[in-house]
């Protein structure tokens, strides 16, 4: 049985060019700000993508990573138990397994951060689609009503951003991976919403649930999960914390 070869085109990365394997491609884009890369079936398509002439869509598990920051500052903890989801290594195989286990249309990893000296809170979102497309989003804010919640403001903001993306893209379900339990417990009514912004978060999630099915999956923070670590890095980048 023959194995089909693909061409990994790095448009923005450490060394832009065409690579013959995901391993080589990943070396050029992992951790690189606003990296852009996709997988193609033919070298001609890969070259056209790099040169900005592509009119085709990527084949197979096309991968694209876009560092996008939307400037719309928006928007906390207690007890709560959740079964931890196994850490993922970020490979295409891991992505396929995530979709098989969650049975959802799209997946998002979210995290929040806070810089106490500046009072800036922020979020990071890694949005993953079934075709392998990956988009990254981050944003920050300094609104006083959110500052008291510190990094939890970013956690909430990230979850809302991810859910709104799913709606905008026309999906009917999303799996949200998070390391802060409140993201799920407030949305599902398991924790009491006793602050203005947690009440607001709950209400917005209820509205989103009229449009799509939302499932929550807790991951262990700083456990080596590739996508969770990436969301954490984006959140830190948003608030100006050097990593």
Automatic annotation (TrEMBL):
Family annotation (SUPFAM superfamilies): L9 N-domain-like, Ribonuclease H-like
Membrane-crossing residue ranges in chain numbering: none
Cofactor: Mg(2+)
Family annotation (PROSITE patterns): RNASE_H_1
GO biological process, one term: DNA replication, removal of RNA primer
Enzyme Commission designation: 3.1.26.4
Catalytic activity annotation: Endonucleolytic cleavage to 5'-phosphomonoester
RNase H type-1 domain residues: 102-240
A Pfam family assignment: RNase_H
Alphabetized GO MF terms: metal ion binding; nucleic acid binding; RNA-DNA hybrid ribonuclease activity
Classification via Gene3D superfamilies: Ribonuclease H-like superfamily/Ribonuclease H (3.30.420.10), Ribonuclease H1, N-terminal domain (3.40.970.10)
Alphabetical keyword list: Endonuclease, Hydrolase, Magnesium, Metal-binding, Nuclease
Functional summary from the UniProt entry: Endonuclease that specifically degrades the RNA of RNA-DNA hybrids.
Family as reported in the entry's similarity comment: Belongs to the RNase H family.
PANTHER family xref list: RIBONUCLEASE H1
Name the UniProt record assigns to this protein: Ribonuclease H
Organism: Oribacterium sinus
């Amino acid at each position: 049985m023959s194995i089909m070869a693909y061409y990994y085109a790095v448009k923005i990365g450490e060394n832009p060019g065409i690579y013959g394997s995901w391993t080589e491609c990943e070396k050029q884009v992992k951790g690189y700000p606003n990296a852009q890369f996709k997988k193609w079936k033919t070298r001609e398509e890969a070259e056209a993508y790099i040169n900005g002439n592509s009119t085709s869509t990527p084949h197979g598990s096309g991968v694209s990573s876009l560092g996008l920051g939307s400037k719309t500052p928006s928007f906390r903890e207690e007890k709560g138990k959740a079964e931890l989801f196994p850490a993922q290594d970020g490979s295409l195989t891991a992505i396929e397994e995530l979709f098989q286990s969650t049975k959802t249309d799209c997946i998002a990893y979210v995290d929040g951060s806070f810089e106490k000296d500046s009072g800036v809170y922020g979020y990071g979102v890694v949005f993953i689609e079934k075709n392998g497309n990956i988009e990254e989003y981050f944003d920050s804010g300094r609104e006083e009503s959110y500052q008291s919640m510190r990094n939890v403001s970013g956690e909430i903001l990230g979850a809302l951003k991810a859910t709104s993306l799913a709606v905008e893209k026309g999906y009917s379900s999303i799996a949200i991976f998070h390391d802060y339990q409140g993201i799920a417990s407030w949305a599902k009514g398991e924790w009491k919403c006793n602050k203005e912004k947690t009440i607001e978060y709950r209400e917005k999630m209820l509205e989103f649930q009229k449009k799509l099915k939302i499932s929550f999956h807790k991951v262990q923070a700083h456990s080596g999960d590739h996508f969770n670590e990436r969301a954490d890095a984006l959140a830190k980048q948003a608030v100006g914390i050097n990593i």
